[in-house]
Design a protein that fits this description.
The chain is of the alpha+beta class. Helix content is about 35%, strand content about 30%. It is built from three helices and four strands. It has a four-stranded antiparallel β-sheet with strand order 2-3-1-4. Helix 1 runs antiparallel to helix 3. It is globular and about 40 Å long.
């Protein structure tokens, strides 16, 4: 059974565009990871500093293994653009 991972990010004031570009740069890496079925980045119309990434995976383990494909220094750069910690959760259909 596949799982869906929903990740939510809130950018600091004035950093929404930069965060969207940076997180958007992760999408090809995520999509090419073993077990990834799809990955989509969305921005809120009401609050463009709010970004959601919806990922479909063959398993939770496949998603967790894929995190190693994103360079730690790039992840640190993203963390500096955030207003608070990112949120993420797994969902079943």
């Amino acid at each position: 059974m596949s799982v869906t991972r929903i990740n939510e990010f809130q950018a600091r004031e004035g950093e929404g565009d930069a965060l969207a570009v940076l997180i958007g740069s992760f999408v090809p890496t995520i999509e090419s990871s073993e077990g990834c079925l799809s990955c989509q980045l969305l921005r809120s119309q009401a609050d463009p500093a709010r970004i959601v990434v919806i990922e479909a995976w063959e398993s939770v383990e496949a998603h967790q293994a894929s995190v190693r494909n994103i360079p730690p220094e790039t992840m640190q750069e993203a963390m500096q653009l955030l207003a608070g910690p990112p949120k993420g959760e797994y969902f079943n259909a």
